[in-house]
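Intended use. Records like the one below are meant for learning the mapping from a protein sequence to its folded structure. Do not use them to infer anything beyond what is encoded.
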Amino acid sequence: MNARKKTPLRGRRLGRDAWILAARDALVDGGIEALKIGRLAKALKAERGSFYHHFKGRDALLQELLKHWATTNSQAYNAALNLDHDNGEAELAFINNMWLEESTFNPDYDAAVRDWARTDKKIAKTVRQVDRKRIGVLEQIFQDLGYKDDVALVRARVAYFHQVGYLALGLGESRRRRRELAPVYLDVLLGR
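Structure written out for the chain above:
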């Protein structure tokens, strides 16, 4: 009987997404300095060659990681535009998904990218662009709620800056407490 041996984890070729997710985890856990190809390969129990099958080098991975962050951590903002703003559905969905449940937003990932942006002007430029798009989504929501021009813009900024600051401070409130305060936040930040 000629039984085939199982392929060991070492030497396996992983998909591109596995490397991006490993890079995300390394960034969140250890900052930009933790993003080393050898460390990622070790964490994935893979050969470095698997990495180079998908990326030309570390810089290419970093660019893909930044795109991944901009896409995945902005899903809640983009989805909010497609909801009905007349009956408060969008605001409630946004508050629930983003600020309470964090089901479509990873606050640790956001904080890690913002830390990275403090050390790299190109990354900082991308973060500012993403921030502007997110604020633009909030501004559109406020306009749909009947707020005009600068009032909609300032309300969008206040709501966005509040959330970024809340996460940066790491207040660590329980979900239960956050849910209790949600109606107050809706009233104060969104005017509803």
